[in-house]
Amino acid sequence: MSAEPPEDAATPPPAEAAGYDLAGIPLSPRARHLIALEFGDRKDFDDPRLEWRRLFSELLGTFFLVLVAAGGGLLHAKGQISLPAAVVAPGLMVLAIILFMGAVSGAHLNPVVSFAFALRGDFPWKRLPGYIIVQLLGAAFACLFLLAVFGNVEHLGATLPGPGYANWQAFLMEVVLTATLVSVILGTASAAQNVGAIAALGVGGYIALAGLWAAPVSGTSMNPARSFGPALVSGDFHSFWVYVAGPTAGAILAVGCAIILRGRDSSSISRAAGSGILDPGSRRARQQLAREIDEGTVDPSAGSGEGPRPT
User: Fold this and answer.
1) Per-residue pLDDT for 129 more than 50?
2) C-alpha separations of 273 from 67, 72, 112, 292 in Å
3) CA 185, 187, 193, 196 torsion-angle sign
């Protein structure tokens, strides 16, 4: 095991030390390439010239998610698939989306997730309306597809309070379920991006888990876009408020918990705390490394000693 930097060290050893890459871990060129593909480049994520690409990614990803979630709900209501299949499928879809497009847009796929990232300070508020609009459009397009295939049946898989449950009960369930979902996302994301296998497994696994036990109560939406698509296309906004107010309240609670657990600063210190790295020496080392990456003096996808990325 490599020794941690001494707690009184002002700065860590140079990340570009001979034969090593970031954090002193030896990486082959292939490994660096795979990491770059999986996690993307923060400069690309923040580049305003590429906003169209990120918006298209959110539209496409939300289309896929709502297609599977609402389609599964519709087919379950028709008695053609089981409830476990209907609630696990969206979790698997989210897992796949994070892996194949998380590095492009962050794979938010959910207005309250984008809102939570902005509220924590990881995501610019000026980009929030665009993300929400394309997420709602993606959900609507998915339900238009379901309408063309199945017709206006079973509310097009809309999320509604289960039999015997009132709106207030579904609302409280959505608050708690969404608070936990957003907590998982904030704890596994890299700033405002859901990227990497850990985020994919954590977020996708939680969505499946929540559906397995809570779907009979509220339908486990946890996503206003997922509920908006079926409501708009089917023309039935009955109980829709539950699936806007509940997830929004849950996201606010999750951000509050994240600040308590990791601090208000969501950059290097809070990410290190979220990974369990709380000793001062390691925290300072990772803070310095994150600062060097942001300033362009260290390139996480380049070989050792290659200097900053060209601008």
Assistant:
1) yes
2) 36, 38, 23, 19
3) negative
pLDDT of 67-87, one tens digit each?
999 999 999 999 999 999 999
Structure tokens at 163: 């039999």
**Domains of the chain, residue spans:** 42-262
Q: What distance, in Å, lies between the first and last C-alpha atoms of the chain?
A: 37
Q: From CA 62, how far away is CA 101, in angstroms rounded? A: 11
Residue whose C-alpha is closest to residue 77's, from 149, 137, 143, 159:
159
> Residue 311 is encoded by which pair of tokens?
């601008």
Q: Is residue 211 over pLDDT 50?
A: yes
Q: Hunting for tokens 């998380």 — which residue is that? A: 102
The CA radius of gyration of the chain, in Å to the nearest whole number, is 21
User: How confident is the model over 51-72, as pLDDT tens digits?
Assistant: 999 999 999 999 999 999 999 9
CATH number of 42-262: 1.20.1080.10
Answer for the pair 223, 247: CB distance below 8 angstroms, yes or no. Answer: yes
Query: What is the 8-class DSSP label of residue 300?
Result: T
Q: Token pair of 145, please? A: 């597809």
Whether the Cβ atoms of residue 259 and residue 120 lie closer than 8 Å to each other: yes
Non-local (6+) Cβ contacts of 130 within 8 A are 51, 55
- The answer to whether 293 and 17 have CB atoms below 8 angstroms apart is no
Residue 88 CA to residue 144 CA, distance in Å, equals 23
CA–CA distance, 69 with 86 (Å, rounded to integer): 7
User: What is the mean predicted confidence (pLDDT) over 99-127?
Assistant: 93
Give long-range contacts, CB 8 A cutoff, 24+ apart: 233-237: 233/140, 233/143, 233/144, 233/146, 233/147, 233/152, 233/156, 234/143, 234/147, 234/152, 234/155, 234/156, 234/158, 235/152, 236/155, 236/158
- Token pair recorded at residue 76: 């379950």
